[in-house]
């Protein structure tokens, strides 16, 4: 089972592609305690579902702005002794406080947002006064890198930085960070056919770089990439096995649903509203629309994530054209590099 606590929706940055509310709320101790009670209740009701691992994500805004609640949640949940429990958190990397960083590095699997070189990062990831945040993030990463070797760096690819996508990815990889990941901001309406070609060219350059530098890492990279975009999809398990709890205690099925009143399934003070969840289940269990005719449908996010479809297109059963175009690119890249890596393996086995 997975529980995501939005410890704050406030942030010290004003990233241009951010989807979080600009009227921020912050989780208080009472709500945090009720969130833990809700978590305990769900785990007790579904013992088989959390047999292997309980996953807790701490989310924002910038979560470290509410560090006392992070500390409280982690320590309280660790004491419940439910077996294996893991904590994850994404931070913008701008809060350089060694006490905080020491604690989270020890207890939480960290992801730090960094979009690449300074020129690309500072295009979008800026403070309220418009100043770029690159230098502070690098300072934080340098410190974390000495404390832990199990963090990730995450890039966001946008229309205004996609031309430097490969260059940025290689830059971060060569800095020696353990894992570098990326995601496209598909909500940006400025994507077009020409920019998609730029994205594909840069993605191809990244895969080529991986193959030429370390074959084992390239195979691992391809495996994870394929699993991320083309793993078999079932029905959304939001508010069954996965819960997002907002700063004010409302319960939502997924990350993009938070803040959309129509997708609130209840709150931690009074529990899930079963009729709302039942109505959502009906929507999620139907397979309709043009997407069902696509050969990739059973391995596509669009099948499972009806809420994302609704938010992006206004239709539960229609996927975003930007997402579809991206998936076609991803599919062609996967096929190309599966072939290349198989040939490499064959050549190595014959020598």
From TrEMBL:
Domain Radical SAM core residue range list: 1-231
Pfam family, one: Radical_SAM
Named cofactor requirement(s): [4Fe-4S] cluster
Record InterPro entries: 4Fe4S-binding_SPASM_dom, Aldolase_TIM, MoaA_NifB_PqqE_Fe-S-bd_CS, rSAM, rSAM_sf, Sulphatase_maturase_rSAM
Keywords per UniProt: 4Fe-4S, Iron, Iron-sulfur, Metal-binding, S-adenosyl-L-methionine
Source domain of life: Bacteria
Secretion signal, residue range per the UniProt entry: none
PANTHER family for the chain: ANAEROBIC SULFATASE-MATURATING ENZYME HOMOLOG ASLB-RELATED, RADICAL SAM DOMAIN PROTEIN
Name this polypeptide is given: Radical SAM protein
Biological classification of the source: Bacteria, Bacillati, Bacillota, Bacilli, Bacillales
